[in-house]
Amino acid sequence: MRAVPARSIINASMTGITAMDFELPEELKLLKRTVRTFVDRELIPIEMKAMDGPALRADVRADLERKAKDLGLWLLDVPTEYGGQGLSLLGMAVVWEELSRTVALPPRGPGVFGPDVKPVLFTLNAAQKEKYLFPVLRGEKTTAFAQSEPDAGSDPGAMRTTAVRKGDHYVINGYKRWITKAQDADFLQLVAATDRSKGSRGGLSMFLVDTATPGVTIVRRTPTMMSDMPCEIALDNVIVPVENLIGKEGEGMRQAQSWITAGRLHQACRGLGVAKRCLELAIGYAKQRVTFGAPLAERQAVQFMIADSFTEHHMTQLMVYHLAARTDAGVAGRHESYMAKIAGTELGFRVADRCLQIHGGMGLATEMPISQMWRDARSFMITEGPVEVMRMVLAREIFRGQV
Fold first, then answer.
1. With contact defined as beta carbons under 8 Å apart, do 313 and 349 qualify?
2. Residue 287 domain boundaries
3. In this structure, are 278 and 385 located in the same domain?
4. Of 167, 206, 264, 318, which has the fewest CB atoms closer than 10 Å, so is most exposed?
5. Residues classed as catalytic
6. Which residues contact 380 (CB under 8 A, 6 or more apart)?
């Protein structure tokens, strides 16, 4: 695959996107084509044999990361002061959308364009950055974000994991569930209640917790209908030094909220990518599959599914790109991320379901990517905030006149 100067593309997009019309800037169009070519040439051909259980095969990862580096597709969303590309959120939306056209990569966890770094790590103090952030950027350490619990997923205020200050350290006790990548993590970005009476309004704090600390136990990995296997973690009298508190006590929810829009946008972009690939597959199959003397493409029932899917993808893409551009400009409202999460994830599942139906029995075959895309797309409607919760908070803000 011929190298394209993606690094210059990315740097050109850093001049700042403060407005959004109905076309991507030229440099992001070029970036989109570069990533699409990478997906078409490097990922789709190996997508049914790239994984080893829930993880990408080590030899495949090494090869893909090398090719990504050669193309300049490395540390895309890491700020330039930390050696990254500093790509805008709109630029990342383009990248996420294209990568989601394939099932060659794990649906959750790091891709092949560099370490997965939550933005909160860039807010650490100097000592914390030396110990935790920089090793992650160098590929020497891995991390996982631990917030969800059996009784506190979409309702973090119900969190039961506690962190009690005792002199120069905290004692953490509790249980975490649905934690992606924890089995390989060197440390956790862990949210715990420092004042349960305040709930999520000043009662939660975030800590850096080394997984080798006594009392931290990976209890089990939960098999799911997707390809990932998230972890359950027990915390039994875990001693964490005060210097491992991120920011101040009570800021945990605010810190998590600082990147939640990007998380919801990522989920929406996954839906866009799944929908786009499923449209491609459905159109190709409908043209060549003949029943009762005519291609499926001539059947009105199939035509309507394709037309509806194409229309819905276009509308959702405009919404998602608009949210990304407005977030980059610092003017997006929270309600816009709720709408994008709802629209994007439901789009992905709806179009995957139509694609599966058009393929008939072949859609059920695991030798094709459709059934896995269908399963993964269904899960996106739950993770990073279920669509029902998104609708609930959106309606609340509408009735309060806050939108």
1. no
2. 253-399
3. yes
4. 167
5. 384
6. 267, 270, 271, 344, 345, 348, 349
Asked if pLDDT for residue 16 goes beyond 50, the answer is no
Residue where the block lists tokens 């997009």: 13
- CA separation for the pair 381, 343 (Å, rounded): 10
- Could you tell me if 102 and 158 lie in one domain? no
pLDDT digits (tens, 9 = 90+) for 24-46: 999 999 999 999 999 999 999 99
DSSP category for residue 122: G
3-state secondary structure of 359: helix
Residue 6 confidence class, pLDDT cut points 50, 70, 90: low
Q: Match 């001539």 to its residue by tokens.
A: 298
Asked if 305 and 341 sit in the same domain, the reply is yes
Q: Give me 159's structure tokens.
A: 């969190």
Answer whether 246's CB lies under 8 Å from 199's CB: no
Residue 258 and residue 222 share a domain: no
Average pLDDT, the chain: 92
Q: How far apart are CA 319 and CA 336, in angstroms?
A: 8
Q: Which residues pair with 233 in a beta bridge?
A: 176, 218
**107 near 379, Cβ under 8 Å?**
yes
d(CA 78, CA 187): 19
For residue 179, the cross-strand partners are 231
Q: Phi and psi (nearest 5°) for 202?
A: 100, 5
| pLDDT tens per residue, range 323-358 | 999 999 999 988 999 999 999 999 999 999 999 999
pTM, entire model: 0.91
Which residue, chain included where needed, has tokens 């899960």? 379
